[in-house]
Protein 1
Amino acid sequence: MDLLFATNNIHKIWEVQEILGDAFRVFSLKDINLCADIPETSDTLAGNAVQKARFIHQKTGMDCFADDTGLEVDALDGRPGVYSARYAGEGCSFDDNVAKLLKELSGVENRNARFRCVVCLLLAGEEHLFEGRIEGTILRERKGAQGFGYDPIFVPAGYHQTFAEMPAYLKNGISHRGKAMFRMMKYLKGNEGTDSGLSLVSKPV
Ligand code: IMP
């Protein structure tokens, strides 16, 4: 099955292709020669995922899916959350965001956090939402060079390595995005509901 992923983030494309495996071919916007600045102006992850998918569907007429992810830090009342991409300001880099988070958490004992990812699949005129989350802790310094975003400072619960120290298959097997994509894959294969703990919502466009 061919799927269009409404993202400009090449790291996400790599991850999702590996998660979905050979039964699916994931196309990026670049693959279809679409250069678009995708809006994400909602104050919820689900709102942004829907907004991104609708925007690309309107531009292309194609079925597609989009994700939105937030890092929720307990000591910061859930921030940066839905604003994770531009935490350090418009146009900031992954590294700027990590630096700002480390600064805000300096001297803070409670390092608990989670990644939450919502995927919106826009298929045959219907929207389907899938969610995945992973609990973990925020380190005091960066470790590792794999992955992207906040990966160098996030250690998933039950592990000693950051996401950035893990091989891709390990991160993808336990991550927020991996879980959300797994649910989408189950749905596309006609087996939705066979795994547990994550929500699936369907509603008309
Ligand atoms: P987005 O809006 O879904 O692209 O995600 C918001 C921000 O969260 C991104 O700019 C990244 O900094 C961060 N992010 C998203 N997914 C991940 C991940 O899997 N690992 C680390 N950081 C991530």
Protein 2
Amino acid sequence: MRRTLVLLLFAAAMPVWAAQPVRARHGMVVTRERHATGVGLKVLQAGGNAVDAAVAVGFALAVTHPSAGNIGGGGFMLVRLADGQTTFIDFRERAPGAASRNMYLDAAGKATEDSTVGYRASGVPGTVRGLEYASRKYGKKPWAELLHPAAELASKGFALSYGQAQGLRSSARGLSRFPESNRIFLKGGKFYEPGEVLVQADLGRTLERIARLGSQDFYEGETARLLAQDMKEHGGLITLGDLKQYAAIERKPMTGTYRGYTIVTSPPPSSGGVGILQMLGVLEGTGYEKAGAGSASVVHYMTEAMRRYFAERSEHLGDPDFVKVPLSSLLDPNYIRKLRASIDPERATPSREIHAAKFNGRESNETTHYSVADGDGNIAIVTYTLNGGYGSKVTATGLGFLLNNEMDDFAPKPGEANMYGLIQGEANAIQPRKTPLSSMVPTIVMKDGKPLLALGSPGGPTIINSVLEVIVNVLDFGMNVQDAVNWPRFHHQWLPDELRMEPGYSPDTVALLEKRGYTVKRVNAQGEVAAIRFNNEWLEGAADPRTEGTAEGH
Ligand code: DON
């Protein structure tokens, strides 16, 4: 009887239709791959802090999620320490010293595929330096201990899931062009089946060397030497000098407020943080949320905020160490008020009436975000990538890791589309040692000085909007974090002037939006959010059901 009563009370407090996050009190790891999640959890259970676990997960995903996890790419880590300090580690790729503005144009001035496939597509990788920087400054576990699980997953192998086997198969066309990729990831053209064990012996040896010798091996030692030689033999640009010179950059996170919450987010060369802050600024005070989550009116207001920000992005955003990014103008309250006032509450504003360059895109899920929190109040969240799925498709000879094609995040030809259809301007033109503009945006939301939500996503340009949507689902629509992640997403990026919507919106809602003037396009899945909600003493982990992500806590 007593038991029934407890159950009834429990049921009343927790509606049956809500999806539940994974709850724990002492630590939480959310990644898109189960082995990597397990590696992070073990580090926390062994007394490592959130940064230690994030470093170990970074290396593990380089083995178990080869389409995006990497040591041949780069990314961003956002950290909040228990003492309240926040910091941002930029370990994104940089253009090699020999890179030049027109390096991807043929004799007729046409952009070639070289920015996306093959040895010339890679920027200087930053992951190993970035993770080492984080570990030295903010971690407490020995470096080698954090790499050991990854090295073992590589050398002993792990059983491929359905999604992993499928992912390799669907990239066979690109991977098979490069002998090392074909041998390691496609079994020489025979393909891996789900359940089969993928062994990556070369990668295991590389990781063991990095475990023993630190990033020195990758940037100046044996790995550097082999990588530079491979580049030279295949017309790539990355030299020993480029590798030696690579440094991670610690930057101040961007912060802003929204309805009494503090948003701690990613500064340039991310274009995401300023976007999230501008779009939240535009929404604040409109009362848009009153119409209810999923309503045509909510989608309308959010889309208009997106459209306006993406027009700015194409014009103004680039590497802040090379170009002046007008952050304060973009976030000036008077300017935001003007943007807000330009929204017609009932009608879509045609993008041709919003001025800046053309910006046109497609999406894929080949970047990855993971979130870690420990029981002491430290948070480390990372979005890192090879850019496209399996990056440039090149596996470095004898080293076993895939190289990025991040050079395509520059404007290979300012004014013409890159791989995501992004047409970007001079601010993001190629220059030696410059960092390409990114949409990756690890973000932490705080309330009254305490963390409330930590999240990020892959998805190219859609990243920014996916993160925005999960934030408002929690803050404005009161969803629990799992519902907020599951909720159907949508995306507008100014140009093309179309509203992309996942399934899950009713035909009535879509019809209302079309009546307001939107061209609605259905898409399958957008992004892959990994979020943690801090709910009093509980850590609530939400992996994205759109892919094979997992959350585990203790
Ligand atoms: O940094 C960026 O914005 C891109 N390289 C991210 C690419 C990405 O998310 C691909 N997956 N969807």
